[in-house]
Recover the amino acids of this structure.
């Protein structure tokens, strides 16, 4: 099985199932610029990492941080977390950086958390991506606040062959539509920190979406046909150097999202704390007096 087909086979499973996550709340448009911070977590340091990561959102809220972020933890591959920051433009990204750096007190508070987190992380990488609406599909159909799992695929292309990704995407999208799967995904092109690469983000309400998608695998293959499969194989061999395909789980405790997201799914993004049980009277203590009956 060729690299591209291996990936789109898995992608089609998640995408087909993601129809269950069709928009039930106002659609969240993909940001034009996506800044991704990848934290490689040291083996067996998930617990200590969690304790510090859970404190960033509260600090951001306290300081009225203008930039929100969503954090996901890898369910496949090596232990790591990705922080997704969205911006309308590079200028907006610059303003956010200057907001923190322009205030020594704010900078010091975030630095203190970073210092505590450092022993739990082996490496941090930053990449910036640009949204490609022409390579995406039905983004208005994605219910992002209720998407608790994501498939994230990165296609690394051979230098000089990035344009062939456009044809590969068209072949895949046409086969999906032909098989009745007008499903949502967003595609980004690597700008800085990564070159000759495309990022495909696939939202899922739950991993049950993948199970549902299994039923559509044959439909997709039939819609692609022998000619389409042959063309995909040829384009893949010529243009795709490697593919990273992983499943990620959103971690609400590590994320700092907009109020509209919280309103859409409050039990997930901001659950009410569990009520503390009533304290039992100490041994030998008199029971608390009962309230008199109402007249």
């Amino acid at each position: 099985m060729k690299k591209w087909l291996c990936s789109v086979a898995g992608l089609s499973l998640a995408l087909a199932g993601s129809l269950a996550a069709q928009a039930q709340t106002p659609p969240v448009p993909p940001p034009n610029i996506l800044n991704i911070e990848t934290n490689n977590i040291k083996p067996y340091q998930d617990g200590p990492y969690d304790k510090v990561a859970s404190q960033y959102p509260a600090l951001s809220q306290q300081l009225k941080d203008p930039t929100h972020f969503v954090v996901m933890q890898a369910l496949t591959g090596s232990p790591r977390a990705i922080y997704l920051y969205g911006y309308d433009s590079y200028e907006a990204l610059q303003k956010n950086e200057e907001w923190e750096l322009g205030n020594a007190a704010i900078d010091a508070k975030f630095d203190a958390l970073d210092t505590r987190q450092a022993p739990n992380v082996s490496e941090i990488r930053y990449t910036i991506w640009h949204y490609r609406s022409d390579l995406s599909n039905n983004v208005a159909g994605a219910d992002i606040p209720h998407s608790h799992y994501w498939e994230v695929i990165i296609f690394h292309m051979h230098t000089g062959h990035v344009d062939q990704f456009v044809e590969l995407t068209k072949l895949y999208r046409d086969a999906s539509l032909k098989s009745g799967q007008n499903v949502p995904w967003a595609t980004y092109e690597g700008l800085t920190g990564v070159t000759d690469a495309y990022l495909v983000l696939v939202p899922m309400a739950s991993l049950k979406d993948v199970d549902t998608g299994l039923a559509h695998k044959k439909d997709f293959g039939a819609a692609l046909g022998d000619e389409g499969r042959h063309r995909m194989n040829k384009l893949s061999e010529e243009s795709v150097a490697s593919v990273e395909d992983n499943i990620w789980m959103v971690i609400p405790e590590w994320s700092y999202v907009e109020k509209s997201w919280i309103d859409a799914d409050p039990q997930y993004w901001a659950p009410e704390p569990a009520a503390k049980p009533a304290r039992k009277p100490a041994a030998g203590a008199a029971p608390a007096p009962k309230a008199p009956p109402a007249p």
Strands lie at 33-41, 69-74, 80-87, 121-131, 149-157, 186-192, 197-204, 240-250. The chain has one domain: 3-261.
